[in-house]
């Protein structure tokens, strides 16, 4: 193999390729970046045995060939080279990859080419053009509610399922659940709606986060294979694919119905004011008390937290509140994270009880709902020797 390529033409592809391979652990062939020179292009490929990345970049190929090289080392080397043309070739024995740029010369050992396994091709079936920006936003708004534990099976996955809205129009719902939080973002894409199976698809969170790193800002092409989900850049240069999961997603209708029915109380609050107050209150949380207690009276909401070693905090916010609920408590950090994913200036809370699900919505975040479970309120008072 012998080719010449410009460093800036391949550096982004090498970065994306190295992102999905293990840094130090795992079998050596999984830490490999494969370089394939053919025609007028250099293909850069990597896999962790589940995710697959393949990018094709313009190159001047003198001799076609295939070589596998330790991925992180090769990427780090190219990353630290200045812009300009790089010559890449294998030695006569094929045991080393030689990299040259001007007076700079480097040699990296290659891996056994028998390790190479054919990568999955983008399927020749119906595909859908989608916005990479929107897909990134969708992941941001749902992934934080998905369980991090692979052993949790379906709730360690994003659920993309086709359905209809209350007017009977086609709607796709992206859902994330971890047992104490739930997020749901509805969006409309008729082509994708028609492609998805009736029960939807499941994508594991760990793959979703790697997809988020790869996603370009512009258009992406999406295709659904028999066992994999494929994405391709609009210019067809890069392909990223991931395996689908086949668990049974939990029925979320029960707690959704409680929230959509109206609840026992409603709260409207300025999102930024609430976040700022919670950020200060969190200073007074402790390992044993990670919550902010909320109490309601008229047009005011009181925020309170106390810890034996950190003292107490009290704040008051002007709100719109209706209902008979007197108190409720939420994990402070979780509540801040939820609020941060909304764009709306004002948020509406549907409170179904001090131990029932609470729904959060915003007028400027259409078809977006987050549900959080409150914490059980335990009344505690701490005394010092001076109080005795």
Explained architecture:
The chain is α+β, with helices and mostly antiparallel strands and 388 residues long. The protein folds into three domains: 2-115, DNA Polymerase III, subunit A, domain 2 (DNA Polymerase III, Chain A, domain 2), CATH 3.10.150.10; 127-170 and 187-243, DNA Polymerase III, Chain A, domain 2 (Roll), CATH 3.10.150; 253-372, DNA Polymerase III, Chain A, domain 2, CATH 3.10.150.10. The protein has helices spanning 7-19, 71-80, 132-143, 190-195, 205-214, 253-260, 271-281, 332-340; strands at residues 2-6, 32-38, 41-47, 52-58, 60-63, 65-70, 85-90, 96-101, 104-111, 127-131, 157-164, 170-177, 181-187, 201-204, 219-224, 228-233, 238-243, 265-270, 291-297, 300-307, 311-318, 320-323, 327-331, 346-351, 358-362, 368-372. It has a 13-stranded antiparallel beta sheet with strand order 5-1-7-8-9-6-2-3-4-17-16-15-10. Strands 14-11-12-13-26-25-24-18-22 form a nine-stranded antiparallel beta sheet, with helices on both faces. Strands 21-20-19-23 form a four-stranded antiparallel beta sheet. A hairpin with a 5-residue loop joins strand 25 (358-362) and strand 26. Helix 3 (132-143) packs antiparallel against helix 5 (205-214). The longest helix has 13 residues, at 7-19. It is elongated, with a radius of gyration of 26 Å.
């Amino acid at each position: 193999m012998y080719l010449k390529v410009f460093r800036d033409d391949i550096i982004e592809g090498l970065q994306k390729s190295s992102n999905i391979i293990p840094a130090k652990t795992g079998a050596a062939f999984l830490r490999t970046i494969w370089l394939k020179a053919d025609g007028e292009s250099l293909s850069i490929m990597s896999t962790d045995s589940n995710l697959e990345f393949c990018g094709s970049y313009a190159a001047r190929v003198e001799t076609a060939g295939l070589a596998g090289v330790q991925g992180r080392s090769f990427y780090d080397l190219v990353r630290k080279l200045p812009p300009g043309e790089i010559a890449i070739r294998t030695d006569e024995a094929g045991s080393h990859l030689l990299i040259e740029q001007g007076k700079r010369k480097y040699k990296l050992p290659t891996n056994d080419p028998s390790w190479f396994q054919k990568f999955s091709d983008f399927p020749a079936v119906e595909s859908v053009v989608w916005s990479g920006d929107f897909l990134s936003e969708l992941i941001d708004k749902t992934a934080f509610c998905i369980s991090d534990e692979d052993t949790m099976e379906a709730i360690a996955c994003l659920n993309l399922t086709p359905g209809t809205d209350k007017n009977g129009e086609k709607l796709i719902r992206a859902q994330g659940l971890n047992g104490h939080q739930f997020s749901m973002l509805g969006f409309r894409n008729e082509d994708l709606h028609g492609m998805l199976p009736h029960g939807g698809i499941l994508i594991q969170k760990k793959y979703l986060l790697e997809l988020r790193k790869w996603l370009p800002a512009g258009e992406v092409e999406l295709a659904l294979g028999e066992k994999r989900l494929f994405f391709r850049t609009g210019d067809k240069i890069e392909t990223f694919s991931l395996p689908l999961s086949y668990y049974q997603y939990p029925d979320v209708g029960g707690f959704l119905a409680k929230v959509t029915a109206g609840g026992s109380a409603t709260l409207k609050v300025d999102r930024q004011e609430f976040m700022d107050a919670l950020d200060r209150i969190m200073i007074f949380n402790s390992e044993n008390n990670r919550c902010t207690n909320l109490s309601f009276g008229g047009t005011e909401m009181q925020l309170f937290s106390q810890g034996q070693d950190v003292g107490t905090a009290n704040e008051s916010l002007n709100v719109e509140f209706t209902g008979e609920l007197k108190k409720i408590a939420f994990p402070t950090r979780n509540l801040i994270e939820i609020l941060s994913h909304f764009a709306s200036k004002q948020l509406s809370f549907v409170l179904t009880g001090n131990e029932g699900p609470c729904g959060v919505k915003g007028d400027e975040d259409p078809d977006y709902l987050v549900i959080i479970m409150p914490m059980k309120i335990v009344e505690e008072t701490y005394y010092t020797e001076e109080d005795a």
